[in-house]
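Lab notebook, design round three. We kept the backbone fixed and only want residue identities now. Task for the bench partner: fill in a sequence for the structure below.
Input structure tokens:
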């Protein structure tokens, strides 16, 4: 049977995990109606779930009448446990034709008449992120299955491509003034690929979507009146839009980083065109992009002569808990009074506002979920996927929360103790006559790995009802009991050469001296894990050669 319409409002295409353990595909209409029975959104790869939920968040933003007191309406819906389906149905019905993947005039997230000069399409590897060109990072897509994909899968990859497509030279439509010799030259990674994406997850999808529906920015302002998602705007042509400035949150949630067109035969999708779409500068967009933390950029600030913040991208080698402070609150810059070194995601500020206003219980457990891609080869290829999650109580977000301070101190204690262990490894290597950088890095990585699960458990139980001093003491003891055996193993493995030692930078270093330095540094970082002692000589604490 030849298919001429595939409307995402009514066709099943979004993967979900239900609270009863079942899995399946649902339509947009079904996902809102059944949100309280759905655990979360899935995807072919983790970042696909992030991209799909941004579409759903744009609908929640625009479909519901939030009024001039959005916090009260938000709390009313939260307490009711389900979305106002009538409002959502009325809204989506009005824009129904814009959600048809195969529409011949205004297809969803595509340009109907997009074409190269030769009228050619490219293979599906270009849109499927787990098969970058010539590099099959995943095995699920090896073989002839790439000759065609279903409409449901194509819809998911269309959404993902608009969010995470790599940079690089693209095909070009002759009508795009940026195209030269049939090629579209790089405009950068698609919008979400430039973010350190984060969603605060609840116990079901209803909670997750509502928690991440940010109705005021960090300054307390409502979204600009001009803000609108792509399906409310004039349909895109082959070229870039005239004004590339994002208009607000829903504009960015549905940002058209690429111009796309699917090639289908009425049964399945067989090819694709991917061209440059709308480029957007990411600096200082924290008042409309709420699902990423931000970092102060000194180079950009000096270059352009103003204070600039850029999205804080995730690092695949750095676990989420190590940067938990920046995820939950703004972090001041010790070098400049009054300036922030990093800004928390707008969603954290929004939840903080709800807790502070009494709209949300600070004892509620949520899961900050970090999702993103790391790119290589001048951002033209997907290198790694970031998918990490924590469990915390909203008490950590409170504006005057002492709990958050203790979480920060706990991370600092772990960092300090691991630095001491890394110094020990480096000093032992130097005492043995070897290079110290490699052993330092190995020891640091092994220690962070060893403390990963314990810290996650510790953080998940941290609430305002906790005896914070006692809980911090417990964490110090946990860190001590973890790194001390590792230090003994390092000393034993260093053997006789380190025991004898040698002169390094006019200073004799051996395993005994290295152990003393380590012990002094550990006492300084983990004060609650040791009995009180006289303050050691500061000039010798944690020494490293």
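Proposed sequence:
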């Amino acid at each position: 049977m030849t298919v001429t319409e595939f409307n995402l409002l009514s066709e099943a295409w979004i993967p979900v995990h239900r609270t009863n353990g079942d899995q399946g595909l649902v339509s947009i209409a079904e996902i809102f109606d059944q949100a309280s029975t759905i655990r979360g959104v899935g995807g072919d790869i983790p970042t696909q779930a992030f991209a799909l939920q941004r579409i759903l968040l744009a609908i929640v933003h625009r479909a519901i009448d939030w009024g001039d007191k959005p916090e009260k309406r938000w709390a009313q819906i939260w307490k009711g446990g389900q979305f106002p389906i009538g409002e959502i149905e009325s809204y989506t019905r009005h824009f129904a034709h814009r959600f048809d993947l195969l529409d011949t005039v205004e297809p969803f997230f595509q340009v109907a008449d997009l074409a190269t000069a030769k009228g050619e399409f490219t293979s599906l590897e270009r849109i499927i992120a787990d098969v970058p060109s010539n590099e099959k990072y995943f095995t699920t897509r090896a073989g002839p299955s790439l000759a065609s994909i279903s409409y449901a899968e194509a819809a998911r990859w269309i959404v993902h491509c608009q969010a995470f497509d790599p940079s690089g030279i693209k095909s070009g439509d002759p009508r795009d003034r940026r195209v030269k010799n049939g090629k579209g030259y790089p405009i950068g990674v698609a919008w979400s690929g430039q973010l350190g994406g984060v969603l605060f997850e609840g116990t079901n999808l209803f909670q997750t979507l509502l928690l991440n529906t940010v109705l005021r920015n960090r300054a307390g302002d409502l979204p600009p009146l001009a803000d609108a998602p792509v399906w409310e705007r004039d349909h895109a042509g082959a070229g870039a839009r005239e004004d590339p400035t994002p208009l607000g949150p829903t504009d960015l949630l549905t940002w058209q980083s690429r111009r796309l067109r699917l090639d289908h035969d009425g049964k399945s999708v067989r090819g694709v065109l991917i061209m440059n779409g709308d480029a957007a500068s990411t600096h200082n967009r924290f008042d409309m992009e709420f699902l990423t933390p931000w970092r102060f950029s000194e180079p950009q600030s000096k270059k352009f002569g103003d204070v600039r913040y850029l999205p804080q991208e995730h690092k695949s080698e750095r676990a989420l808990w190590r940067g938990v402070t920046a995820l939950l609150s703004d972090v001041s810059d010790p070098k400049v009074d009054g300036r922030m070194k990093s800004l928390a995601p707008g969603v954290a500020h929004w939840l903080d506002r709800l807790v502070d206003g009494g709209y949300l219980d600070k004892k509620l457990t949520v899961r900050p979920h970090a999702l993103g891609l790391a790119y290589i080869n001048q951002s033209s290829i997907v290198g790694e996927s970031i998918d990490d999650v924590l469990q915390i109580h909203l008490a950590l977000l409170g504006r005057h929360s002492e709990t958050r301070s203790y979480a920060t101190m706990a991370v600092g204690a772990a960092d300090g103790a691991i630095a001491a262990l890394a110094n020990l490894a480096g000093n032992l290597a130097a005492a043995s006559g070897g290079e110290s950088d490699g052993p330092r890095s190995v020891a640091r990585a092994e220690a962070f790995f060893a403390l990963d699960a314990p810290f996650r458990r510790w953080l998940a139980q941290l609430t305002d009802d906790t005896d914070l001093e006692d809980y911090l003491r417990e964490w110090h003891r946990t860190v001590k009991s973890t790194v001390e055996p590792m230090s003994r193993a390092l000393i034993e493995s260093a053997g006789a050469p380190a025991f004898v030692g040698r002169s390094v930078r006019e200073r004799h270093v051996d395993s005994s001296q290295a152990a003393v330095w380590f012990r002094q540094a550990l006492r300084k970082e983990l004060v609650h894990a040791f009995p009180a002692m006289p303050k050691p000589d500061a000039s010798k604490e944690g020494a490293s050669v």
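Keep this in mind before ordering anything: The longest strand covers residues 365-376.
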